[in-house]
Design a protein that fits this description.
The complex is a heterodimer of chains A (569) and B (738).
Chain A: E1 34-35, H1 82-86, E2 113-117, E3 120-124, H2 133-139, E4 158-164, E5 170-176, E6 189-191, H3 205-212, H4 222-233, H5 257-264, H6 273-277, E7 288-292, E8 295-299, H7 303-312, E9 317-319, H8 325-332, E10 334-335, E11 338-341, E12 351-353, E13 357-361, H9 366-372, H10 378-387, H11 390-393, H12 398-403, H13 411-417, E14 421-426, E15 429-434, H14 435-438, E16 439-441, E17 444-445, E18 452-459, E19 465-471, E20 482-490, E21 496-504, E22 511-512, H15 514-520, H16 527-540, H17 551-567
Parallel strand pairs in A: 2-6, 8-11, 9-11
Antiparallel strand pairs in A: 1-10, 2-3, 4-5, 4-6, 7-8, 12-13, 13-18, 14-15, 14-18, 16-17, 19-20, 20-21, 21-22
Helix pairs in contact in A: 3-4, 3-5, 15-16, 16-17
Chain B: H1 9-14, E1 31-37, E2 43-49, E3 59-63, E4 87-88, E5 94-100, H2 103-112, E6 114-119, H3 126-132, E7 135-144, H4 147-153, E8 156-164, E9 176-181, E10 187-191, H5 196-207, E11 214-218, H6 233-246, E12 250-253, H7 256-262, E13 269-277, E14 283-293, H8 301-310, E15 321-328, H9 343-361, H10 365-371, H11 390-402, H12 405-418, E16 422-435, E17 444-451, E18 457-461, H13 470-482, E19 489-491, E20 494-495, H14 510-530, H15 540-549, E21 555-561, E22 566-568, E23 573-575, E24 579-592, E25 598-607, H16 615-634, E26 665-670, H17 695-707, H18 723-734
Classes of the chains: A alpha+beta (569), B alpha+beta (738).
């Protein structure tokens, strides 16, 4: 059990405000964060009169440095310079162009970055480094994207990113713009709902389908649904539309039936500029260091550069998908003066499937893992949709979910049951640790200052049978009351040779219960064996009560989920 | 059902439909407001010094009681909601506001405000309130015959209690208001409000100016559900006060966290009951006591309690009844209107009771329900004849047939016999819901129809669009009443400068009232045009132009008041409702004993919408209302912590229905031959009644839970039926301890 004493710790009260992004959280160290001394609230708001945006629409120079890392970890083919693509892509209705074309730059700004917004280049030279993409869009009168929750739960702010999927193909990925720090879209191509209507006023198929099926009532969530639905229709893999694609979008009016009908009415993506765009490579990310008086955002291009930056700037905070950090920014008023974006570091985006192990780069998103791990065991397919919605999975990384060390993150129980190890890198070298030794306490891991989680390694052979269970108030896109992953391997006589019982939500850290595992090992798993294992669970685990469930319910769940697993053997 | 899209559907899907906060680019120099929040649920404010906020760069002004020219109170009825309190009455109550060039500046400024408090004991639950005698009002009481004697004389008797959770509205668009001085000495406010005239009244009260200087506009709302009937007012008042003081536009927008901790919710209720019934499971008498958690101020809690008492019969004849209700005063958010308005809390109790009777007598619950239905000529406990009561039985039998109820009951029993750890449940429940504001004077509406010389038309009415499709229906009403295509008609954004003294768009009556007023105005114009000679032209625009040249007015005001309704609260008798809306639902669920989770497999609904003005809108209201009811009954759990903070104050902790709650099979049909001749176009109100169709899911869960037991035992299940509650109920049914 490592250094964690199961059952002796109580989960602190701060657990109360953890979010869905928890299970999807980002790379983050114990932060020396600046925290506004006020109630947890929302800071990113429209700064209409703040005068700190560069609203130039001149083309920028996005290729500042050579050796661009690509977003696609399995396709190292060099991509064309995004700059040369800009002139060819006209997917936007001119009416939706930013209204304000006046250059409005602060003289003191030393750095800038650019990205493509609805087909047009945008240069940003002075903006709070923690301004969310959503606020930036709404400042530019692109008000189709709405703020419903500011914590990645409702999807009303969804936008599209042109990116590369696990098969190396260009795709549209939906993401919550409230959880994207503006600098993180540097070099990227962003489409908002405003871009989907053609110049001649013709609507995209997803839009006409939503109208035809009465998919909107108050209409406030509708742009987000349209965006998620668009991404699903243009998904490269040729499957029928999957309603899980919309699981990160909440609607309070319709009850979802008409939205389901609208989605299921869609055929393959039609020919046209949006389809043609997918034949071209997605933009590559280039390194940059955006440093201005309000904060700094660095995007290093290698692990060595990243670790060097972190060493020079001890106050800096690593950020990958920002699905957890963004919630702290938006709801808890935390301000990070220096963010180091990990999205451009090739070493963190590697994926290896070897005869001895599967190794997953810590910076890979959950979506990418699903795409790259082509012969994954069934438990992975069970686990991914339970983990979070696509809007979160498209941004959240496995490394982030582990390094946040949330007791209710959903990756840890599964990886614990798979006996995963973590590779930890620092300027002085690398080391490997067992995942069950990795978590030291509530939101505390082994990672020392100057260290970064590089990858997660799952040894082979995988257990014979693995199941992941999640008990939560809501079936989809909720945070676990209790998460459990059970793995067993049996010999030819049906005797259990190895058992692993891992849980989240029952202690300050995700944990295994080795005593109960040992109770099952070398047995035939009879009802009596099972009862003894459950008695150990009952005696060992001491979960807490909170708004997700009472302590005795949680404790009973640990046992009844094991019963459920046994009933399914 | 034909598909007529929502009139704003194109704007919705393109993002071009604007909501209040989307307008801020129209207001150069706008200031952003942020509140200073009290850190206690109950405390005395000993001192307040807002001055330090002014040292924060970007802060332009602070707002405190000293800035209020008029009455600093936004309470709708009792004037019990001080804008700047000296006694803190709920956790996070704003004590001052800071206005900044940016929201960040305002927030930073707010942290500099110095306030001292003396913490006091807080009342944080209905139980606490009862123990301490902390009430806003009550008892309200409706009696019929002698319930105590009837129960004493009945062959069977049972008692019980039920705890019913509240519900957060969670409109996707949070509260927002933008105020700006107008061009002639007044003030204009864009507000996300269901009740612009009351918002106007409150702003005028706070600024001490006549209402003709205050203009409230409401473009549309991103959902409201009752949550913006009263509780939009304080934010508009703060925006107005800020604009009045600084002469600059001011925006108040509550982010989700603040919206959830500052605004009221559906009332939590606690019910105790005593019931007498006979061998045939017929109700003999019911004694019922209801307590609602009203929160810190009265708000609409009185009429909510009245509606709970009016609806404690649902669709059943209770020959002897003694029903009383108290509104508890607690140090929590001030609970308010929410779709159903107390009706759901009254109706859930009788549904709970009837299932208990069925389990006690080992009779099928649907049979027990059916035996107690109102019949034609029956009257309610408040003395109103149950008009069209035959529709209850008609809906029941048609729905049972179309949903294949009897065969499925057999297959559910078969499934349950074969499965130890999962059980299915099947239930059918009815809805009868009274339509009208119970405060009779609210049942009026005005409209103004303007026809221009080119034949294009503007329609103004007093209702607000919150997604319910009011304007889609108004468009059809105006089109038919004028005889012009919908494409020639523009429904104008709601504005108090167009129609004065409007009622809230609430009580499901938006179309009934405003639609009738619009039709009245259109009729006048049409009659004038029809009086023209044939030579006036053949097309509408030709005749309009001829009319103009003939000096005939091309605009008209319409008015409507609901006829023949009255209620006397002293005797608790009368005819408070113009008519009843009816419906029923069948739900089949599957419950997992390992976790307490359930899945709704199939839902069949048959609902009475009269002659539908817009079938696609009505279907949307039925499905959406049902889903919201399912959320209230099974999923959405509002919790407050020991300090009185809302513990579930965000989308990550407060879970709305999502895709998993959508039934695999979902059949919705309208009752045929159901015209309501006394209502516009023969239609019926549809906003609230379908919410209570969701009782079928709760009762199906109880049915499944009962299958884990040996039978003959009632199923105790508080609301919401979360997985944990169901898990516990299953353990109880099995005779096991948790």
């Amino acid at each position: 059990m490592g250094s964690t004493a199961p059952g002796t710790r109580r989960i602190p009260a701060t657990l109360r405000s953890r979010t869905a992004a928890d299970r999807a959280g980002n790379r983050e160290y114990a932060a020396k964060n600046k925290i506004l001394p006020c109630d947890p609230t929302h800071l990113n708001e429209n700064k209409q009169s703040s005068g700190i945006c560069d609203l130039t629409n001149r083309p920028g120079d996005p290729t500042k440095m050579p050796g661009n890392p690509t977003l696609n970890p399995v396709n190292p083919t060099p991509k064309p310079d995004p700059k040369t693509e800009n002139g060819e892509r006209k997917t936007e209705n001119p009416k939706s162009r930013p209204r304000d074309l006046v250059e409005w730059r602060m003289a003191s700004a030393a750095a800038e970055f650019s990205f493509t917004l609805n087909g047009l280049p945008v240069r940003v030279s002075a903006e709070l480094s923690q301004t969310s993409l959503l606020d930036f869009l709404r400042n530019r009168a692109l008000t189709g994207s709405k703020e419903g929750c500011a914590e990645g739960e409702c999807g009303a702010c969804a936008v599209l990113l042109v990116t590369t999927n696990g098969q190396g193909q260009t795709c549209y990925q939906s993401a919550n713009s409230c959880l994207i720090p503006l600098p993180a879209v540097a070099d990227r191509e962003v489409l908002t709902v405003e871009a989907l209507k053609a110049e001649n006023g013709h609507l995209a198929e997803v839009q006409t389908a939503m109208i035809a099926h009465n998919g909107s009532q108050c209409g406030y969530c509708t742009p987000g649904f349209v965006v998620s639905m668009f991404a699903e229709q243009y998904r490269v893999t040729n499957r029928p539309p999957d309603v899980h694609a919309l699981s990160g979008n909440l609607c309070r009016c319709t009850g979802y039936r008409p939205i389901r009908d609208a989605l299921l009415s869609l055929g393959p993506a039609p020919a046209g500029p949006f389809h043609e765009r997918l034949a071209q490579p997605a933009p590559q990310l280039t390194p940059f260091d955006f440093d201005q008086p309000h904060g700094r955002y660095s995007r290093p291009q290698s692990l060595a550069e990243c670790l060097g930056l972190a060493a020079e700037n001890p106050e800096a905070q690593f950020v990958a998908g920002n699905t957890d950090l963004g919630v702290m920014t938006n709801l808890k008023g935390q301000r990070f003066t220096h963010l180091i974006g990990l999205e451009g570091i090739p070493e963190l985006l590697e994926f290896h499937d070897t005869p001895d192990f599967v190794e997953i780069g810590a910076g890979l998103t959950l979506t990418a893992i699903g795409e790259l791990w082509t012969d994954a065991p069934p438990v992975i397919a069970e686990w991914l949709p339970l983990f979070a919605s696509p809007l979160i999975r498209n941004r959240a990384t496995l490394g982030g979910n582990l390094a946040t060390a949330s007791p209710i993150g959903d990756s840890a129980p599964m990886l614990l049951a798979l006996a995963a190890e973590v590779r930890i890198a620092s300027l002085t070298g690398e080391r490997t640790a067992k995942l069950h030794d990795f978590f030291l306490g509530y939101r505390k891991t082994q990672l020392a200052p100057g260290e970064i989680l590089r990858s997660i390694r799952i040894p082979k052979p995988l257990p014979e049978l693995v199941r992941f269970y999640k008990a939560a108030k809501r079936a989809m896109d909720d945070i676990s009351t209790v998460a459990a992953c059970f793995a067993i391997t049996r010999d030819a006589d049906n005797r259990i040779t190895r058992a692993r019982l891992a849980f989240g939500g029952v202690a300050a850290v995700p944990l295994r219960v080795p005593e109960a595992e040992r109770q099952l090992e070398s047995t035939l798993g009879t009802p009596a064996d099972l009862t003894r294992a459950k008695q150990i669970l009952a005696a060992t685990l001491k979960p807490m009560s909170d708004h997700r469930g009472s302590a005795d319910y949680r404790l009973a769940l640990t046992q009844s989920l094991l019963d459920k697993f046994w009933s399914e053997l | 059902m034909t598909a007529t899209p929502h009139e704003s559907a194109r704007g919705h899907v393109t993002g071009e439909a604007l909501y209040t906060d989307d307008l801020i680019s129209l207001y150069p120099g706008i200031l952003h407001a942020w509140p200073v929040l009290a850190p206690h649920a109950h405390a005395d404010l000993l001192s307040l010094n807002a001055e330090p906020a002014m040292q924060e760069p970007g802060v332009i002004a602070t707002l405190t009681a000293a800035d209020v020219p008029g009455e600093g109170n936004t309470g709708a009825n009792r004037h019990d909601e001080p804008l700047f309190p000296t006694e803190i009455l709920y956790h996070s109550q704003p004590v001052a506001w800071v206005l900044g060039e940016t929201l960040e500046a305002a927030r930073r400024g707010a942290t500099r405000v110095i306030a001292e408090y003396r913490k006091r004991t807080a009342v944080l639950s209905i139980d606490d309130a009862i123990a301490e005698g902390s009430y806003h009002s009550g008892p309200f009481r409706i009696t019929r015959s002698n319930a105590a004697e009837a129960i004493a004389a009945s062959p069977h008797e049972l008692t019980g209690e039920l705890r019913i959770g509240g519900q957060e509205h969670f409109y996707l668009e949070t509260n927002c208001a933008i105020a700006q001085l107008d061009t002639s000495g007044g003030i204009a406010i864009e507000s996300s409000t269901q009740h612009p005239s009351e918002t106007q009244e409150v702003v005028a009260r706070v600024l001490a100016i006549p209402r003709n200087l205050v203009t409230i506009g409401c473009l549309r709302m991103g959902g409201a559900f009752g949550g913006k009937e009263v509780q939009a007012n304080p934010w508009a008042a703060i925006a107005a006060l800020g604009a009045w003081k600084t002469k600059r536009p001011v925006r108040v927008r509550l982010p989700r966290y603040l919206d959830m901790v500052l605004t009221g919710k559906r009332h939590p209720f606690y019910a105790r009951f005593k019931v007498g019934f006979d061998e045939q499971a017929r109700l003999c008498g019911v004694e019922l006591m209801l307590w609602s958690d009203g929160g810190w101020s009265l708000d609409l809690s009185d009429p909510v309690m009245w509606r709970a008492l009016f609806h404690c019969d649902n669709a059943y004849l209770i020959p002897a009844l003694d029903a009383s209700g108290w509104v508890c005063k607690t140090h929590k958010t001030s609970q308010t209107a929410f779709r159903g308005f107390g009706g759901p809390q009254g109706m859930i109790v009788i549904e709970d009771i009837l299932d208990r009777i069925a389990r006690t007598l080992s009779l099928p619950p649907d049979v027990v329900r059916e035996r107690n239905f109102y019949r034609e000529e029956d009257s309610t406990h408040y003395g109103q004849t149950v008009k069209d009561a035959d529709r209850i039985a008609r809906i029941w039998s048609e729905l049972k047939q179309s949903s294949d109820f009897e065969a499925r009951r057999a297959s559910v029993a078969k499934f349950n016999a074969m499965h130890a750890n999962t059980k299915r449940g099947l239930a059918i429940t009815p809805v009868k819901f009274g339509i009208s504001f119970t405060a009779t004077f609210f049942n009026q509406a005005g409209a103004s129809v303007l026809v221009y010389r080119d034949g294009s038309v503007q329609v103004n009415h007093g209702g607000t669009e919150m997604g319910q499709g009011l304007n889609t229906k108004i468009l059809r009403i105006a089109s038919e009443a004028l005889g012009v295509p919908e494409s020639e008609i523009r429904i104008m954004p709601t504005n108090t400068a167009k129609i004065p003294n409007t009622s809230a768009t609430a009580a499901s009556a938006g179309t009934d009232l405003n639609g009738a007023a619009v039709a009245d105005a259109c009729r006048q114009v049409r009659e004038r045009l029809e009086a023209l000679p044939e030579s006036a032209g053949t097309t509408f625009s030709q005749r309009v132009d001829t009319a103009y040249r003939s000096r005939i007015p091309l605009f008209a005001q319409g008015f409507y008041k609901t006829p023949d309704i009255h209620f006397d609260p002293k005797t608790a008798t009368g005819k408070p409702f113009h008519y009843y809306a009816y419906g029923a639902a069948v739900a089949e669920v599957e419950v997992d004993a390992f976790t307490g989770a359930h899945k709704t497999l199939r839902v069949d609904i048959l609902h009475d919408v009269g002659d539908s003005i817009s079938p696609s809108i009505d279907r949307g209201q039925i499905e959406g209302g049902f889903a919201q009811g399912v959320g209230w009954l099974t999923l959405e759990e509002l919790l407050w912590d020991a300090e009185g903070r809302v513990a579930t104050a965000g989308a990550s902790t407060y879970k709305l229905p999502s895709w998993g709650e959508l039934p695999d099979i979902f059949n919705v049909n309208f009752l045929e031959r159901a015209a309501e001749p006394t209502v516009i176009m023969g239609s019926k109100a549809v906003g609230e009644p379908p919410l209570m169709l969701a009782f079928a899911v709760r009762e199906a869960i109880r049915d499944a839970v009962a299958s884990f037991g040996k039978g003959g035992e009632p199923v105790d299940l508080n609301s919401p039926a979360t997985p944990e509650c169901i898990f516990r109920a299953i353990r109880t049914a099995k005779g096991e301890r948790l």
